Each structure stands twice: as structure tokens, then as C-alpha cells.
Structure prediction request, 147 residues.
Amino acid sequence: MKVPGIRSPHDKVGGLVYFGRMLDKIRLHARGELHPELQANLGEAFDKMCAHFLRVPYAEIAAHVKDGASDEDTLAWCRARGHQFTEDDAFAWNEFLRKRGWNDNASERLKQRKAESGLSSCDDIRTLFDYIDADEERPLRTQPWQP
Prediction:
């Protein structure tokens, strides 16, 4: 499914993967333009993990974004309210999230999602980020563990 106006989870904002995608989803939902398949997990899964990493409740992040804050302003606001993460923290976050589904406790979920989408035979889809990109018809980043 193509999802106009939403970034790849690989894309970084302020050095963090996924954060920009979460903000895109919030904005699209506020305008009534978020794809129905993405609405069920709004504020859950990776969104919830991202909010937890930032140590700011997802609902507060969503409210801030809906007030018109830019990506950079939202990240600065989160850092001021929650976790003053370091470059090392960001690196660990990025690498953890980019590898999610690859030989970990999310591997079965990835296998299930691939099967539901008819992508079971796609061996190059090794992570949940790969799956999201493939499902949204973006080119895969063939080495998800590379910076």
C-alpha cells in the first residue's frame, strides 16, 4: 500500500530513525488522511517505543505536533521535557529499531506480516523496517544494519 506523505522508518530526524515517521502519522491522522491500516497502531508498537525512548507520553507528543510544531521543534521539546539522550543513546536506539524483527522476539511477527502481505518468499525483507518499506512500495535498503 502506498502511503502518501509518510516517510520511511529509516529516515532520521535529529539523528533518530522512525521519529519523523511517527510525526507524519500524527499529522496525517489529524487531517483525516492516515491510511486505515495504520490507524489501528497509532500510538502503539514503534510509536509507543519511540515515546518511551524520549520519556514523553505519546499523547503529549501528538498534541504538540497537532499544534503545528515542526519536526525539529518537536524533538527539541521532547528532549527538554524528557530524555536528554546522547549520541551513543541515539546510536543504540537506531540500531535496535533498524534490526527489529531480525533474529529477535519480533521475528515471528515479521514472518506473520510477510505472509499476510504475500511477501513470504522475499528473503531480502529481514527486518520490520524492511517490511514497512516493501509494504509501502519503497526500495529496500539492502543492508539495514549499515549506518
